[in-house]
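Researcher: I'd like a candidate sequence for this fold, 755 residues long. If you have to choose between options at a position, lean toward the conservative one.
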């Protein structure tokens, strides 16, 4: 970041150090050579061009010519030809492209006015000359430079010499620093997993637990993701050690038993029959993605710790780009055109409301589009304004060009990248200073957005500052000070009748996910009597399920207003707890496993394929599925019927892991029957400290993990791992071994002993 000043900059020395393999040009009117030519004279420009040629080489520096109809270009182009002749440098004809087609000039001009808070009618504002800054065709360029054909030919010469290879999709995880006694990441992860497993399930691990952990560890190790879990565990352990409240784990990661053992998540995936393949699919190599929630006041501390742990030049936050939405485009267009505010407001209010949570783009309001038919039907008044009111037509024409453009860049609310080598080995970076902040103190941010970072195989992690956790922390502190009581918020009872009575009355204002007007109406209709009903509410109150009336069907069947209708009697075993409805993605996967003989990995691929709606892929999936149903003995009639159901449900079936994790931990999630429940301060559990225990747990059901094939091999692997960890559990404090003196450092005011 040396030399950074509002935008990344390089000096002559940096160019000289990194010139190998680079082809350079003298640039546009804003470049060094042309600025010298216009302000200092021919000799100064010649000296600049010669210096660039000395750095890059005679065949690697091109004298760049442009013609956008700008007077300065017409005046300087003959002088550039003379510079090229004297240096014997090749010519290159180029065209600045700020929009794709010539007709985009008006929208581009409007965007400049939006960014500079100007009016398009102003004569003294910043604007581009003419409408030639678009992507011109080869024919247009050769016509423009017909007297200099070599300048156009040289673009092909450059293209033939260019050889940039960027490898996508290959994970490039940072190295996790291992303590002594462990030869690789997989061995240390295995050690930590079984240490945690004994804390979760007791001294004697059930066979299903050992088998599940053995399978997951093998998949994680084979896919090369052991260090990912160690890095995530270490970050969360750091937060817990310092008394920073951490969320229970987001999304499909709740289906991972290894994450549960490492206290990355706090939902027992075996008890709740959550699927590991929904989180990590061994037949589809993609990076795991575990979101981490922290008390929002300490998010910066977590980023600071990551930078200290892996190197400050290895950690950056990720940029995000905001786009101009339809209503904002209309209001912006009206403003830059000089119309009163009421004009833009009137047009914006005539646009269709959100439909199933989605906005209707302006172009789809004016012309029917198959994806937005409902919005088009509701935009009749808007089309009438467009056809009959010239003022509205002018505003909407400009707004159509603005809609979807990127307004500005910012910092993603959660995403952070951690790299193995310094950041600049993989991607460009910048600083994002706030007003009045010294540039050297501003956060480092990538110039690639999140999708690009992930495609490069870099480790993207979400550090989300969650205000709900702030409220919980402060509430517990208030109770401690005012009443002298220690409330164990992490172990609350989930069968409290008073709570369900409150829910049935829909007195849920201020309750996360349950406070909206329509949601409260659904709660009254469904009348929850168990926590599984609350999880179902979260899954049902989504655009997809509501569009096919599934939310009302669930409520009616639960309360006896409608009969359960299973597509096959054997489906009751899988869909009995959801009244025959596939409201969870895991349900779709279980159905494919049971009726078509799919492995869970294949079932997850089927789920994703159905969601994408690719006709060619869907035809192959349908044939394979129907053949599978026949092979499992269910006949030829059920396959087509069942695939139709799955194809529709895949659009809106919700992730069960995500739905269930929106709850606090349950007493019975922790230990089997008869074990005493520990009341553990944050951070103590993973340090191996003996804690006082109180209260007995209710029995917990361990369900079949449903893995297909290779059972004997899994059992042998499970027995081997079980024996290894039963007799040789180490008492070494892994956090202390890794961090040394770092344990004492933390956020200002943090109490390491805080619950």
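Model: Candidate sequence:
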């Amino acid at each position: 970041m040396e030399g950074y000043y509002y935008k990344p900059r390089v000096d002559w020395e940096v160019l000289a150090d990194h010139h190998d393999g680079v082809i350079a040009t003298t640039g546009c009117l804003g470049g060094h050579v042309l600025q010298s030519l216009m302000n200092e004279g021919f000799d100064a420009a010649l000296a600049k061009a010669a210096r660039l040629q000395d750095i890059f080489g005679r065949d690697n520096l091109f004298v760049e010519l442009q013609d956008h109809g700008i007077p300065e270009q017409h005046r300087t182009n003959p002088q550039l030809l003379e510079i090229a002749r004297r240096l014997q440098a090749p010519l290159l004809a180029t065209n600045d492209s700020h929009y794709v087609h010539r007709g985009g000039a008006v929208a581009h001009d409007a965007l400049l006015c939006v960014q500079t808070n100007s009016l398009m009618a102003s004569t003294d504002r910043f604007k581009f000359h003419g409408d030639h800054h678009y992507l011109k065709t080869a024919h247009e360029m050769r016509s423009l430079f017909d007297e200099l054909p070599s300048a156009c030919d040289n673009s092909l010469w450059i293209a033939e010499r260019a050889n940039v290879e960027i490898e996508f999709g290959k994970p490039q995880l940072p190295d996790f620093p291992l303590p002594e006694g462990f030869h690789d990441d997989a061995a240390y992860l295995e050690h930590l997993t079984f240490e945690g497993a004994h804390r979760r399930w007791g001294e004697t691990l059930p066979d299903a637990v050992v088998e599940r952990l053995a399978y997951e560890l093998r998949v994680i190790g084979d896919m090369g993701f052991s260090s990912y879990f160690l890095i995530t565990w270490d970050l969360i352990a750091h937060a817990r050690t310092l008394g920073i409240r951490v969320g229970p784990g987001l999304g499909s990661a709740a289906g991972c038993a290894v994450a549960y053992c490492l206290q990355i998540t706090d939902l027992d995936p075996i008890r709740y029959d959550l699927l590991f393949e929904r989180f990590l699919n061994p037949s589809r190599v993609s990076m795991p993605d575990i979101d981490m929630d922290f008390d929002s006041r300490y998010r910066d501390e977590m980023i600071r710790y990551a930078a200290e742990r892996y190197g400050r030049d290895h950690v950056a936050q990720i940029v995000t780009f905001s786009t101009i939405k339809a209503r904002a485009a209309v209001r912006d267009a009206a403003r830059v055109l000089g119309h009163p505010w009421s004009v833009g407001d009137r047009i914006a209010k005539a646009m269709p409301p959100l439909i199933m949570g989605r906005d209707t783009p302006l172009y789809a309001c004016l012309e029917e589009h198959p994806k937005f038919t409902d919005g088009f039907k509701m935009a009749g008044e808007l089309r009438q304004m467009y056809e009959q009111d010239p003022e509205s037509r002018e505003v909407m024409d400009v707004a159509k060009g603005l809609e979807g453009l990127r307004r500005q860049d910012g910092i993603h609310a959660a995403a952070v990248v951690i790299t193995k080598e310094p950041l600049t080995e993989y991607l460009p970076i910048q600083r994002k200073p706030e007003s009045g902040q010294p540039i050297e103190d501003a956060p480092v941010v990538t110039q690639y957005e999140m999708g690009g970072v992930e495609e490069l195989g870099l480790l993207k992690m979400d550090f989300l500052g969650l205000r709900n956790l702030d409220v919980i922390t402060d509430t517990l502190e208030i109770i401690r000070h005012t009443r002298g009581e220690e409330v164990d918020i992490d172990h609350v009872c989930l069968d409290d009748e008073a709570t369900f009575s409150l829910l049935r009355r829909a007195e849920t204002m201020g309750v996360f996910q349950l406070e909206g007007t329509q949601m409260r109406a659904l709660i009254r209709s469904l009348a929850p009597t168990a926590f599984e009903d609350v999880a179902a509410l979260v899954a049902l109150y989504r655009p997809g399920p509501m569009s096919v009336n599934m939310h009302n069907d669930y409520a009616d069947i639960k309360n006896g207003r409608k009969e359960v209708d299973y597509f096959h009697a054997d489906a009751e075993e899988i869909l009995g707890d959801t009244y025959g409805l596939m409201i969870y993605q895991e349900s779709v996967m279980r159905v494919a496993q049971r009726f078509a003989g799919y492995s869970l990995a294949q079932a997850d691929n089927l789920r994703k394929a159905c969601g994408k709606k690719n006709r060619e892929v869907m035809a192959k999936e349908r044939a394979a599925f129907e053949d599978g149903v026949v092979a499992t003995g269910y006949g030829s009639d059920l396959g087509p019927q069942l695939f139709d159901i799955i194809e529709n449900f895949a659009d809106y079936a919700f992730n069960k892991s995500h739905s269930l994790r929106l709850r606090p931990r349950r007493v019975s999630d922790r230990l089997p029957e008869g074990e005493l429940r520990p009341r553990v301060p944050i951070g103590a559990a993973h340090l191996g400290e003996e804690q006082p225990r109180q209260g007995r747990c209710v029995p917990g059901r361990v369900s079949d993990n449903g893995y297909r094939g290779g059972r004997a091999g899994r059992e042998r692997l499970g027995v081997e791992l079980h024996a290894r960890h039963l007799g040789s559990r180490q008492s070494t404090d892994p956090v202390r071994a890794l961090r040394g003196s770092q344990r004492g450092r933390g956020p200002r005011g943090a109490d390491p002993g805080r619950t």
